[in-house]
Amino acid sequence: MKKSLTVGCVIMASGLSRRFGTNKLLADFCGQPMLCRAFAATAAPSISARIVVTRSEEVQALCRAQGVPVLLHSLPGRNDTVRLGLSVLLEQLPELSGCMFLPGDQPLLRRETVEAMTALFCREQPSPTEWQKETEREIFRLGAVAENDPAPLVGSPVLFGSSFFPELLALPENKGGNVLLKKYPAQVRTVCIADSAELLDADTPEVLQQLEALARQKS
């Protein structure tokens, strides 16, 4: 009998929002804090557990009000956010097969896209042994085909198989999972979507307004 693969998700919410001026994750987006869009995108049956990792007490309060698990910390590095989030998920699910790292500032990212990435990760293989070995050694990142450019735009979220967990737990200071994308290019698979706007992050109030206008057009 094949065992089911389990995927967890770390919602990255520890940034300082220097370019934005205030905590962008709490900025209004279509009538709710922008971070709520990440909550909606990860409220998927294929995500077995999730955790928001933040340095903001206000974000912590929002998560608790929304019933989303959260970890408040005061450590400075991106590597700290990765380590803390993955460690929490592994405590809950020691047999975790994969972990997605998803920024909290991509408000156009859809739940269907998250589902598509996890479905590809959990795809069936001809035999249980091959199935397990293949998935634990793969990295999936989100991408979109650009006009007049054969190379896709690439970005987040990124889903790592379990064989990468030891290195994710010991990343260099202030480095994120991108270190492993560069180290293991042959293991990276790009999941291409039609709408490149899902890859955009809201780094400034002006960009946030543009993304909100796009969201209203789509709805």
From TrEMBL:
It comes from the Bacteria. One of its GO terms (molecular function) is nucleotidyltransferase activity. SUPFAM superfamilies: Nucleotide-diphospho-sugar transferases. Residues 9-184 form the MobA-like NTP transferase domain. InterPro entries: MobA-like_NTP_Trfase (IPR025877), Nucleotide-diphossugar_trans (IPR029044). This is Molybdenum hydroxylase. The lineage of its organism: Bacteria, Bacillati, Bacillota, Clostridia, Eubacteriales.
